Write a sequence for this structure.
C-alpha cells in the first residue's frame, strides 16, 4: 500500500521546477559533487530540511573565511613585525595591522580631522571605510605592546569582515531565486578567502551585494541607498549606475532609475556631508591621493613603465586610463542597445567593474573581491569561474613573491620583475576571458546559463520581463516568432519586445 504524500512533500514537489539543480545543469559541479557524496538531493535543493541553500552557503563562506585566517597565521605570529620579506614569502601580508599605527589609530587620532605624522597627512580611505576602521580601533585594547595591539586590531577587523563575507554569500544566494546554489561560487572562491583580510574592501562588497539583492526584489530606492553607502566605502560601486541607466533607458524604467539615483546620492551625502563640511581637507585626501598616485602594482601600465626608458607621466596615465574607461562605457552602452535581448543587469555590472579594473593604473590583489559576487551572478558556470579564479590565485602568489624578491636584498629570493610581469598578464587574461564569456552570453542569449534555465533577468527587478521601448540595430526589428523557454514559458519576439512569462500575448 502506497503511503499518502505529506503536505511538506506535496508543497516541495509543486515548487520543484522553480529551482535549478547545479549538479544537473553544470558538468563541473556534478563532477565536484562526488567529493561530498554525489549530486544534491531534492530535499536539500528545495529547502525541506534544515540544510537550506542559504544556511549551507553561509556556513561554507564562514568556513572558507576561517581558512583564510589560518593562511595568515605565519604573519600573525611575527611576520608583520619582525621582517619585511617573511610576510611576502608566506603570502600573508595585510594592510590592517600596519595601518593601525601608521594611520594614527594607536594614538587615538580622529580620521580626517587630525593630521598624521609624515607625508600622508590624512587617512586616504573613503569615509565609511574610515568609520569601519575606527570602530575596530575602539574594540582594540589600548594596553600591551604595539605588536599586541596590532594583533588585536587585525582580529577585531577580521571578525567584522567575517560578517561582511557572510552577508555577501547570503545576498548572492538570495538574488537569483531559482539558482540559490550559485552562491557557492562566492563561498568557495579561493581568491575570496585569500584576500578577504588584506584590506577593508569587503565592507563595500557586502553593501553592493545587498544593493543587488534589493534591486532584484524591485526595491529601487533601497538599492540606491545601499549603493550610495557602498560608494561611501569604496569608489567602484558607483559605476553600477551606468549600466543601470542604459538598461532602464532601453526598458523605459525612468522612474525606478530616478529612485535608485536619488537614494544613492542622498545616502552618500548623509555619510560624507558632515566630514566634507567640517574637515574638507581630510575628506578630500582619498580623491587627491587616487589622482596623484603613480602607476602601481598589478596594472598593464606598470609593465609598460618598467620596460620603458621614458615612462609616461602620472597625468598622462590618468588621462589615457580615463579615455580607455570611457571607451569601455560606450562599448557597454552599444552592447546594451543593440543586443538581441536586453542584457541582464548582473552581466553589465560585472563588465563595468571589470573594465575599471583592467584599465586602472593599479590593481591590488584584494580588488578581486569586487568581482567575485558579480561574476557569480553574471556567469554562473563553474568551469569559467574556476579558470578565472586560478588566474587570480596565480597573481596573488606572484605579487608577494615579487615583493619578496625586491625586499630580500642581495639574496633575491622570490620572483624577478619579468616573472611578475607574467603574473600580471595571467591576471589580465583571466579577467578578459570571463568578460568575453559574458559578452558572448549577451550576443547569444541561448548560451547564457541563467536564461537557458528559463526566465529573462532574475536579478533585474523591474527589468525582468519588461518590454523594450528603445532598441538600436537589428534587434529593433527581429523576425516575429515565439521562442519557447526551458520552463515552459515563452518569449514574444517582435519590434521593441522582449517580454517573457506565461502570460505574454502576441502583439
Amino acid at each position: 500500500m502506497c503511503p499518502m504524500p505529506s503536505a511538506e512533500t506535496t508543497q516541495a514537489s509543486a515548487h520543484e521546477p522553480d529551482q535549478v539543480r547545479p549538479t544537473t545543469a553544470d558538468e563541473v559541479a556534478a563532477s565536484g559533487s562526488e567529493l561530498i557524496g554525489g549530486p544534491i538531493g531534492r530535499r536539500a535543493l528545495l529547502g525541506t530540511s534544515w540544510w537550506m541553500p542559504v544556511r549551507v552557503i553561509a556556513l561554507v563562506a564562514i568556513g572558507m573565511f576561517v581558512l583564510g585566517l589560518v593562511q595568515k597565521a605565519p604573519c600573525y605570529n611575527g611576520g608583520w613585525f619582525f621582517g619585511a620579506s617573511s610576510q611576502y614569502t608566506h603570502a600573508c601580508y595585510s594592510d590592517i595591522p600596519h595601518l593601525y599605527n601608521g594611520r594614527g589609530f594607536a594614538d587615538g587620532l580622529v580620521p580626517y580631522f587630525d593630521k598624521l605624522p609624515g607625508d600622508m597627512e590624512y587617512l586616504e580611505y573613503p569615509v565609511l571605510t574610515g568609520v569601519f576602521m575606527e570602530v575596530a580601533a575602539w574594540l582594540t585594547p589600548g594596553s600591551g605592546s604595539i605588536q599586541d595591539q596590532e594583533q588585536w586590531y587585525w582580529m577585531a577587523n577580521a571578525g567584522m569582515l567575517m560578517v561582511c563575507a557572510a552577508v555577501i554569500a547570503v545576498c548572492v544566494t538570495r538574488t537569483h531565486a531559482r539558482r540559490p546554489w550559485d552562491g557557492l561560487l562566492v563561498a568557495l572562491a579561493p581568491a575570496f578567502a585569500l584576500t578577504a583580510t588584506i584590506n577593508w574592501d569587503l565592507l563595500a562588497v557586502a553593501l553592493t551585494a545587498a544593493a543587488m539583492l534589493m534591486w532584484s526584489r524591485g526595491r529601487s530606492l533601497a538599492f540606491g541607498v545601499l549603493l550610495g553607502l557602498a560608494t561611501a566605502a569604496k569608489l567602484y560601486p558607483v559605476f553600477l549606475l551606468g549600466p543601470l541607466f542604459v538598461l532602464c533607458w532601453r526598458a523605459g524604467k525612468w522612474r525606478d532609475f530616478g529612485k535608485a539615483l536619488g537614494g544613492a546620492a542622498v545616502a552618500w551625502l548623509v555619510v560624507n556631508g558632515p566630514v566634507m563640511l567640517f574637515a574638507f581637507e581630510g575628506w578630500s585626501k582619498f580623491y587627491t591621493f587616487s589622482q596623484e598616485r603613480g602607476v602601481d602594482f598589478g596594472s598593464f601600465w606598470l609593465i609598460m613603465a618598467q620596460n620603458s626608458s621614458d615612462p609616461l607621466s602620472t597625468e598622462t596615465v590618468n588621462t589615457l586610463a580615463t579615455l580607455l574607461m570611457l571607451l569601455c562605457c560606450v562599448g557597454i552602452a552599444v552592447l546594451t542597445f543593440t543586443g538581441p535581448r536586453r542584457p541582464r543587469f548582473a552581466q553589465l555590472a560585472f563588465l563595468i567593474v571589470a573594465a575599471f579594473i583592467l584599465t586602472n593604473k593599479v590593481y591590488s590583489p584584494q580588488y578581486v573581491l569586487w568581482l567575485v559576487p558579480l561574476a557569480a551572478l553574471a556567469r554562473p558556470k563553474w568551469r569559467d569561474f574556476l579558470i578565472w579564479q586560478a588566474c587570480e590565485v596565480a597573481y596573488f602568489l606572484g605579487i608577494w613573491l615579487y615583493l619578496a624578491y625586491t625586499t630580500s636584498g642581495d639574496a633575491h629570493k622570490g620572483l624577478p620583475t619579468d616573472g611578475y610581469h607574467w603574473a600580471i598578464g595571467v591576471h589580465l587574461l583571466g579577467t578578459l576571458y570571463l568578460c568575453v564569456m559574458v559578452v558572448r552570453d549577451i550576443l547569444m542569449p541561448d548560451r547564457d546559463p541563467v536564461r537557458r534555465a528559463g526566465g529573462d533577468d532574475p536579478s533585474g527587478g523591474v527589468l525582468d520581463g519588461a518590454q523594450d521601448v528603445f532598441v538600436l540595430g537589428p534587434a529593433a526589428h527581429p523576425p516575429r516568432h515565439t521562442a519557447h523557454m526551458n520552463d515552459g514559458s515563452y518569449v514574444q519576439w517582435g519590434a521593441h519586445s522582449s517580454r517573457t512569462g506565461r502570460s505574454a500575448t502576441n502583439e
Summary: The chain has two domains: 51-452, 477-507.
